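FW: tagging you since you asked about this chain on Friday. Here's the raw sequence from the shared folder, copied in full. Didn't touch anything.
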Amino acid sequence: MMGTNPVVVRRIMAGLRERGLVHSEKGHGGGWTIARDLEDFTMADVYAAVGAPEIFALGHRSEQPLCLVEQAVNAALDDAFAEAEALLMSRFAGVTLGALAADFRQRLKTRHQSVEEQHHDL
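HL: got it, structure written out here
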């Protein structure tokens, strides 16, 4: 479903387990489960658990540290990227997985109602 290598998924899940966000059980009937109440952790917790990857594809570059153009661009944009990252991390900290789950359930309910209305109209 995720369209990625299973090793990548296992690595992500291991990071979530190490942070106490999920629990895994082996064997028949095993698998992954949420280990805590969804209101107890935020998108910031998940972000940290998956290794805190680079937030922006664009940003500070250091491929050619002696390049004057690269230095000028970095100097011009460093503050903007730092501010944007701080704002995004603040938002991550303010969004619980419980809030995401509630939003998902509402969207799912709305979608089912819409599908039922379409079938009713036929």
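FW: The chain has a mean pLDDT of 89.
HL: agreed, and The helical segments are 6-18, 43-49, 68-93, 97-121.
FW: great, closing this out.
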